[in-house]
Amino acid sequence: MANIEYLLLFLVGSAVISYFLTRLNSFIGSIFTIFATMFVFVSLAAYGFNMNLDTTVSLLPWFSFSQTYLGFFFVIIIAFIYLMVSFFHPYFLDKYPYKNSYNLLFLLSLAGIIGAFYTDHFLQLFFFFEMIIWTTMFLIPQGKSREAAVSYFGFSLTGSVALLIGIFVIYQNVGRFDIQAGLAGISGTTSVFVFVLFMIAALAKLGTFPLHIWLPLAHGNAPHPFSPVLSGALVKLGAFIGILALIKINPIGPVIGAIDLALGQYIIAFIGSLSIVFGTLMAIKEDDAKKLLAYSSMSHGGYILVAFSALNGFAFAGGLYHILAHALASAGAFMAIAAVARATGTTKMKELGGMIHKMPITYLAYLIAIISMAGIPPMGGFISKWLIFQAVIDRGMILIAVAVFFGSVGSFLYVFRPLAALFLGQEFREYKHVKEAPLLMLIPTFIIMGLNIYTGVIPKQIIDFINNIIGENTAFAPVVATTFTVTATYGTLNAGLIALIFGVGVAIAFIIFILMKKSRKVELMDTYTAANFVHDEHLLHYSVDFYAPLERMYEKQSHWMKKFYDALAHKVKEVGKLAKYLFMSNNIGVTLIWILVIIVLLIGVVAL
Amino acid sequence: MKKLFGLILFMGLGVLIILALNNTISFPKFGSVDLSDRVADAYLDNDNVSEVGSANIVTAIVVGYRGFDTLGEVTVLFISALGVAFLFSFKKEKRLDLKFKPNFMLKHGSKLLFGIMLVVSLYIITHGHLTPGGGFPGGAIIASGVLLLYLADDKFRSNIKGFKVLEGVAGSLFVIIGLLGLILATSFLENFIASGTVGQLLSAGIIPIIYVLIGLKVGSEIASVVDNFLTEEESA
Amino acid sequence: MSAVLLIAIPLLAAFISILFKKYSIYLLFAVTIFNIANVFLATEGIIIIGGFSPPLGISLLVDTYSKIALLLVNALVLVIAALNVKAYPKYGTILLLVVAGLNGLVLTNDLFNFFVFLEISGIAAYLITASNKKPITTFRYLVIGAIGSSLFLLGLIILYSMFGTLNMVDMIKEIALNNNYQELVLPFTLMFIGLGVEAKLLPFNSWVKGILGHSNTFSGPMIASVYASAMGFVLGRFITNLFNFEGMLLTVVLVILVAGIVLSDIMAFASKKSREILLFSSVAQASMIALLFVNGIIIWAVYLIIANALSKTVMFMIINKAQKDVGSDEVKSLQGLFANNLVIGIIFTIATLSVMGLPLLVGFTIKLNFLTELADAGQIWTIAFILIASVVEGIYFVKLLLKLWYPEGNLIKVNYHLSFKLVFAIIALALLTFGVYQAPLDKLDNTVDTVMEVVNNG
Amino acid sequence: MIQYAAILLFVLGLYGIFISTNTIKMLVSLNILEIGLNIFIISIGFNYQGIAPILSSVSDTGLIYVDPLPQALVLTAIVIGVGTTALGLAFAKSIYQKYQSFDLNDMEESL
User: Fold this and answer.
1) Total structural domains within chain A
2) A427 in helix, strand or coil?
3) C382 with C254: CB under 8 angstroms?
4) Which of A536, B226, C89, C236 has the smallest count of CB within 10 Å of its CB?
5) Can you tell me the mean pLDDT for C412-433?
6) Which residues, in sequence order, are CB contacts of D40 under 8 Å at separation 6+?
7) Is A544 a member of any domain?
8) D51 contacts chain B (CB < 8 A)
9) What pLDDT score does C262 carry?
């Protein structure tokens, strides 16, 4: 099916069907969901790459669609993540209190995604954004926490509202809701307003620095198969808005001479770098594996912001590449953790260990994902970070470069911790019965593993597609790439060669490991205890207080943002109580005073 | 403190309204009203007066021109009477005791007085279109007669059921006359009887008929309100 | 058929019904069904009463706008009464008077006659709220309502003495000739406050908390949807035709209304009781409707009134029934209400999402359209405030929804009658349908915007 | 002057409602307010030369009458006031039956 309208209707229709099928049997419903998602993904992939989708509308005449390379880039990544995740549904749904509606909302939110990236009308963009928000908002509380859903919804809604106000500011000045024309048509103070409002939306949805509170809550507490969607797919909506604001609107504010960059863009880059630093620091001290990855998403959101605000070809390409790489990596990591959580029932690192013996493939998937996440070759994350580094240094943004490098080093520190804690080390006794994930769940695991490597080794096709996007949306120079290499200002990266060396190195290490296999498996209680009697073996787990000295440095400061929002909510409540006292008093006299005040005000000021 | 503060505040409001009215040019000064630019001028027009047929122009307005208002007004009274009865609907009720024992003179004198009041009220009601008065004051006099009976006789209970029927029938007839206007003439509450000579008892078309109905309705409604206030739940 | 029957027949029925008390509720059903049919048949234009041409006598004004209002009011009364037949059977006569009063309120073309109907419907409302069994709150409502209508009466009398007429169309013409808005500030302020009390606009509405905060399945929807929508329509008529706010008065009214929206949503945010949350949201919606009328966005205000009336009927009924069965309206004690009542839960969710203005539901279409028109009018700050309030609104509604969906500890048991479910499902389906398929909404657009034209043609 | 006195009576009624907590006093204040309003309504139709608008014969020409419309309106307003007061008193009585008090302050907690 090559018509967007039909795709949307198909998704809505199959959402309804999946509800009834899931009601009947959650396995059948989930299988149906897989096929529906797959159908949509395949249709998009088959026609979308060359912009061959049919955008005419006949059944939904009040919508209007147009296809762009940029939109397609996002939509194909997100649809892919949706497809991968849907393979997990058959094994997870039974645990959820309202499992019937899970597939329904899942498919509806996918419909929202497709609409959002294909529409060329601002109000429809808002329509689809809101649709995504409320459908996903009902998915999150099926996991562990309802506060998480409220927080997710609150921040997302704040973002949407900022977006909508921005849209109306544009509309007032340009007189139309067309996205391209609207963004091109504004200038001066108006564009500053729009920029600020759109950036609030972008920061809120991307979960970056000042608006990041929802991210660990939602990622950490969402149902296990939904966390990959959140982190891999939904936060990218923020990146899309970020591109609209940073790239499509003319640069904001005076140009800073030293780095030849507009002030507005620099501020966003700075916020991005703050996000990198905070995300890294918070991730280091986090104990829950999913929350840790959530904080890593926050820092990666920072990278994306830095990339888009640097305003040149490499940076833009790097940012887009990073979106892809991070989507794959975080989806892979979250899915691996979901598989572990399914088997063991927990995501707390200190409660887990030794899963490598039980779930080797999951382990491998996680390993590859975090290599990409940390920006180590030969995975996609390396290429994107390399491009971003080039751009930052090219611009001479010292402060931001420091943050970017800090984030990169920091990510080594935290991503391997879940690896070690979950998969390596000794097993706990309670997980003796655990088995590898079922085949249906391994399919997406393998695919994502492969793609993580593919993006790191053969950048050609992706860079080519990104060059299309650059040509479509900007005046930047395209990035030069051959099958295995990418060229930037400070040299050429030969991803293929690096991968080859890396592969050889791994092979040698593996041979050594096989030849010199001497390790002996011991029970957790066999070691360390010496003469002490240990009540709780979990305390022996080495991931407990792993970075204790480091954490102590910023323990007190780490929650001040959350405290700020709590205090804000509290203040709003107090204002509400005050207002109740002032307006909703049980005393009639108070109302009389208000009537008097208004009459006096109007007559006194106006009539006399 | 609150009292003084409030007094100053609200008196200030009053002064402000007065000043604002004083400043309004279109607002006529007290006592120098010019009727020619008001709709009321038409009510005093000779042709209109003879068309309606009521010598009392206020009555012509209340029952004729703005008869619909009066229907609403009767309804307000009806619904508040209904509400009072609704709030005081007890399973077993008895009337309030008097604090004194009424003597023979009081009991029978009040009945005599009631008769006189009834006659006066009937006169007022039927002459509403000729002289000041009409259904509302007349009805109120009937009801105060009933109140007199209640206060003068500790055994007296009026026939509430009868009042209810009277109330319902009078109200229904009012609306039905209105509907007859719609059917026999062209619009709701339109006069469909010859209006006769201005100043005679049998004139002004449906106005006296409606006023009689209003008098009965108001009388019975206020009387039933009085009755409701003078009853209480019987403690077993 | 004449539109006057819409008022006369309920009145006749009310007078007859006290003779046959037991059948009063069936009389009500017959009358409302008759009225609904009559709305479609009634001729449009000025309807003369008493045979006196307009400035002399009282007249009614029938146009598409008032027909929509009549249809909504009569249908809602019918539905709410039918659903409460068992629980509150004694209200037949009062409801007949409510129908007469509200129909008159919507139809009348005479200011003083309007005041009379305001009092009829007001007193009927006091009696309806008497079913809350909280006489103190009703007493406060009565006193504030009486003050409000006295202010309205004072305003209209000043207008009469200035322009010498009570007929609305006539008055509008006279005012247009006068063109000194300064002089009109005093009467308009007084009338606006008078209407504001009944339409529960913010600083004048302290009665709402007591009344709706203790409402039941009958009084809740009656006050929050039937009265609210009738008052909304009436307020629209007055604001767009008569008041035409200008200058400082316009500024102050706008500030009052915007502050009303923001503060009500914040108050709802600070509430822990489910009924309070709903009532503050109603207050916010009332201010929103008035705000739209002030900005001349008639059609979407009308839709907002309708959508709000439908959703609030459902929401108040569901919550109030639960409160009755559980004995408390604290959100905490209603946790997990929908775990056992899936259908009711879905319907409540749809209604709430529509009120919040989320896509696929009619509330979203309405919200986006009126915001666009506000942007056309250059009211970007108003838009910003409305949207900021909508964030607060969104958060408290989501909190409420999630609490009601996810049980904590013991499951509570609330049984909803099948008729409840059926009626609510139809309403929810309507909200959903018009949220997706909006062509009919646009169609009506052209016919309603002609409120002014009737005035000009006299 | 009478007109101004009427307005002052009106605000005096408002003041009465403002300061009193007793239900009966509130209703009395409400009535004071309404009386002020009614006098004001009558006053706007008054003319120093005018006579009561009751004709003795149709041929009475050249006479100046006071405005009859406010008088008709005030009749309606009075009756409406009576209705509201009656209902208010009924509520006051039922409050008294429930809480044994007319003072709203006494039962503030019971809300």
Assistant:
1) 1
2) coil
3) yes
4) A536
5) 84
6) C154, C157, D3, D6, D7, D10
7) no
8) no
9) 92
Cβ atoms of B227 and B158 within 8 Å: the answer is yes
Distance CA D89, CA D84 (A): 9
Is residue A90 reached through a cis peptide bond, with omega within 30 degrees of 0 on the bond before it? no
Find chain D residues with C-beta within 8 A of A588's C-beta.
17-18, 26
The type of residue at A489 is: T
Measured CA angle at A212 (ends A210, A214), to 5 deg: 140
Q: What value of ipTM does the predicted structure carry?
A: 0.89
User: Which candidate from A133, A592, A602 shows the least CB-CB separation from C185?
Assistant: A602
Report pLDDT for C428. Answer: 85
For residue A341, being part of any structural domain is answered with no
Nearest to C390 among A161, A576, A607 (CB): A161
Task: At D99, list the tokens.
Answer: 């809480």
**Quick one: which of C225, C213, C216 has its CA closest to C132?**
C216
Tokens coding D25: 């006093």
Residue D86 lies in a domain: yes
Distance CA A493, CA D28 (A): 92
C109, with CB counted inside 10 A (0-12, 13-18, 19+), is buried
Q: Is residue D25 part of a domain?
A: yes
Kindly state whether C124 is in contact with chain B, defined as any CB-CB distance less than 8 angstroms. yes
In a domain, D39, yes or no: yes
SS3 readout for A152-198: HHHHHHHHHHHHHHHHHHHHHHHCCCEHHHHHHHCCHHHHHHHHHHH
Query: In whole angstroms, what is the distance from residue C207 CA to residue C357 CA?
Result: 27
Q: What is the CATH number of the domain that holds D73?
A: 1.10.287.3510
- Residue A82 is which amino acid? Y
Using alpha carbons only, give the angle A207, A211, A213 rounded to the nearest 5 degrees: 80
- D26, C143: Cβ pair inside 8 Å? yes
- State how far the Cα of C350 lies from the Cα of C335, in Å rounded to an integer: 18
Q: C153 lies in which domain range?
A: 5-457
Distances (CA, A) of C100 to B155, B187, C8, C77, C229: 39, 18, 7, 11, 15
Contact status, residue B136 vs residue D75, Cβ threshold 8 Å: yes
Question: What is the domain count for chain C?
Answer: 1
- Residue for token digits 């749904």? A93
Spell B38-51 as b/e; 16+ CB within 10 A means b.
bbbbebbeeebbbb
Helix (H, G, I), strand (E, B) or coil at C227: helix
C contact residues 242-261, partner B, Cβ 8 Å cutoff: none
Render pLDDT for D54-73 as a digit per residue (tens, 0 to 9): 776 655 666 778 888 888 89
Backbone angles phi, psi at D21, to 5 degrees: -115, -5
Segment A94-143, tens digit of pLDDT? 888 888 888 899 999 999 999 898 888 888 899 999 899 889 888 888 87
Q: Is residue D57 part of a domain?
A: no
pLDDT at C446: 52
Cα–Cα distance for residue pair C207/C257, rounded to 1 Å: 18
Q: Do D79 and B73 touch (CB under 8 A)?
A: yes
If we measure between CA atoms, which residue out of C319, C312, C354 comes closest to residue C337?
Answer: C319
What is the count of structural domains for chain D? 1
C26 SS3 class = helix
- Determine the Cα–Cα distance for residues A38 and A32; give it in Å rounded to an integer: 10
Is residue A295 one of the residues assigned to a domain?
Answer: no
Per-residue pLDDT of chain D (111 residues; tens, 9 = 90+): 788 889 999 999 999 998 888 899 999 999 999 999 999 998 888 888 878 887 766 556 667 788 888 888 998 999 999 999 999 999 998 888 888 888 877 776 555
Contacts of D among chains (3+ CB pairs under 8 A) = A, B, C
Q: Which residues contact A457 (CB under 8 A, 6 or more apart)?
A: A378, A484, A495, A496, A499
Distance separating alpha carbons of residues C79 and C396, to the nearest angstrom:
29
Determine whether the interchain pair B30/D2 forms a contact, defined as Cβ–Cβ distance below 8 Å. Answer: yes
